[in-house]
Each structure stands twice: as C-alpha cells, then as structure tokens.
C-alpha cells in the first residue's frame, strides 16, 4: 500500500476534500490518500503574497508530516509553495502539482499552456515553467474572465470560463496540451476533460501518478 499525504496550502477544507476525492479516482492501485489543510492563510491563493503565506503554512505542517506514516507528500497548490524547503525537511519524496502537471503536459515535446483564474500568479507560473525546464515549450498563461473568488463560488460559471480560456490557449498559443492551474480547480478540470481537442492535464491526478512513481522508486526492495 502506497500512503500519500495531500497538503492543501489554502485554508478551504472543501477544496482539500475535493482534491482527495479526485486523487482517489486516479486508478492507481493500492493507494491511500490523506488530506491535510493549511492551518492559516487564505481560502484561495490569488497572488504572490498569499502564495508566500501558503508556503509558511505548508512548512508549519512539517513536524506533523514527519510524524505521519506515509510514503510521499503532495503540495496541492499550483505555485508549489514551500516545495523545495519541505523536501529538505522530510525523508519521503515531495511532489508539487505544478511540477507534475507541467511535466505531464510537456511529455513528448508538446507545446503547452496553463489556464487559470488568478492573474496575480502569472509571473509565478512563468518562473515555474522555467525552473522545471519547460521554458521552450511553454505557450504562456491564459486567464478566465471575472473575479476568481466569485467564479469559485459558481461551479457552472467556472467551467464555462475555463473552457473559454482553454480555447484561447489553443487558438492564440497553439497549445497542444493545457494544464488547469490550481488545486481547487480540480473538479472543474475533470468536467472539462472530455470537451477539448487537445490533452487536458488535471494537475492533482498528474501529481498522484508522479508521487506514486517516486515513492515506488524510493522504497527499498521488499517494502510492503
């Protein structure tokens, strides 16, 4: 049994529950997922200040994560807040959803875009694409119209707004794959998946698969 802990860097328990539920549906065998929600910060991460606070919240969970029997940890916000420092602290593999989502989108040399609701994180997303080695394939970030907080409160409107931004990414960015940029957007990403003519990468399932692979490689032979 592979035991993963999914850390939600925002304070929304509903988002944690939704991401865990989607993670459990990835089809990975012998997998358990526990969700942990940030103890402080914002209910939705919309700018770099909130992302910095989310990193502090993630790192504040490190003692708890060290005590939790698990084989891997997922940081489930698209800026991967606290990821590198958490890797230095924990003895198990740590995976970010931006890291995994971009890796999946870029597979085979595909040109990819990120679609998200948060204009305040455009710079963070561009830096992440470069940091993870995908700058040459990155077609840019395409945004939904409307206030991110209001969109999150209206699931139908959110799906429609994301679909319009995805079509813009295909039309204007020549994207061959699209990453939906945000852990709390996971339910909307799942609803969109069958509707587009290019690969749509759901970052939470991508991170689950990435983490399961890493934990399998990290486990000693004979580990149960």
Automatic annotation (TrEMBL):
InterPro entries referenced in this protein's UniProt entry, alphabetically: Asp/Glu/hydantoin_racemase (IPR015942), Hydantoin_racemase-like (IPR052186), Iso_Racemase_Enz_sf (IPR053714)
Domain of life: Bacteria
Signal sequence annotation: none
Coiled coil: none
Record family assignment: Belongs to the HyuE racemase family.
PANTHER family in UniProt: PROTEIN DCG1 (PTHR28047:SF5)
Descriptive protein name: Aspartate/glutamate racemase family protein
Biological source species: Aureimonas populi
